[in-house]
Design a protein that fits this description.
With 256 residues, this protein is α/β, with parallel strands linked by helices. The chain is built from eleven helices and ten strands. The strands form two sheets. It has an eight-stranded parallel beta barrel, surrounded by six helices. The protein has a two-stranded antiparallel sheet with strand order 4-5. The structure holds ribulose-5-phosphate.
């Protein structure tokens, strides 16, 4: 378990930059994900890829040595009730795909809250049996307010249920989220924002106790995706300032 986790959260810095490219599993397909294979140039800069097994099989060169955090949940599209998820991948297939962690979403306060929490329990039990870390994604429902009280509660619940690490959203007073969660937290990037704002969010998250980011759209929708992921890495792994990281972003090539 620790060996697999240390492939994702690097022992040298204690931090990680994951690239999230699992959006399509519920029908959220940003333009850049239409040609998913084109994202391959980014992979060497990621400490891990978070994605689904279909995309892993069809779009990731198996010769690339990048740890995989495999989303093993699915169920409803964004046209329906997203919290109505179940586990759709067997542990045998996850092992066969040589993944470093397995992940699903929990919808605390959502319509199918209990079902999603039982999904997580299933993954934790599998993880314990086979030594595979579990990442709980604290996805929020349409009605949920993404404040520190809600995200702190959801993250703590995930940790109490045995999650190895937790993915949640950044919010004001984020220290109230990290301080009550006994396992490492990575933040989601969220919708595309100006690069400097995304870098500032990464900086704030690290300063307030996150171990890293699991960022998607703010990297692959950037005009300079390689510059952007390098800039995020400089903050997460090298403690760079936002201004220094922004310079790294600006020096990146346009497109992929
Ligand atoms: C949604 C997820 C996604 O991986 C994640 O939110 C996508 O990354 P980003 O928001 O940075 O584009 O887990 O539940």
């Amino acid at each position: 378990m620790q060996n697999r986790l240390s492939r994702i959260i690097k022992p040298k810095s204690g931090h990680c930059v994951m690239l999230a490219i699992d959006h399509g599993y519920f029908g959220n397909i940003p333009g850049q994900l239409k040609c998913f294979g084109d994202l391959n140039p980014l992979f060497e800069y990621a400490d891990a890829l978070m994605l689904t097994r279909g995309m892993l099989r069809s779009c990731v060169d198996p010769n690339i040595d990048v740890p995989i955090v495999l989303r093993v949940s699915a169920g409803a599209s964004m046209l329906k009730e997203l919290s109505n998820e179940e586990i759709n991948v067997t542990i045998e297939d996850a092992i066969r795909l040589n993944v470093s962690a397995i992940t699903c979403s929990i919808f605390v306060g959502g319509e199918y809250e209990k079902q999603s929490l039982m999904n997580l329990s299933k993954l934790v039990n599998w993880g314990q049996e086979y030594g595979i870390p579990t990442l709980a994604v604290t996805a929020v429902g349409r009605e949920m307010v993404r404040d520190d009280r809600y995200l702190g509660m959801a993250s703590r619940m995930a940790a109490e249920m045995g999650s190895t690490f937790v993915k949640t959203y950044y919010c004001d007073n984020f220290e109230n989220v990290t301080s009550i969660c006994p396992v490492p937290i990575v933040i989601a990037g969220g919708k595309k924002t100006p690069e400097k704002d995304a870098l500032q969010m990464a900086r704030n998250a690290i300063d307030k106790g996150a171990v890293g980011v699991d960022m998607g759209r703010n990297i692959f929708q950037s005009d300079k995706p390689i510059g952007m992921i390098k800039a995020v890495r400089s903050i997460v792994h090298e403690n760079a300032s936002v201004d220094d990281a922004f310079e790294i972003y600006k020096q990146g090539p346009i497109g992929l």
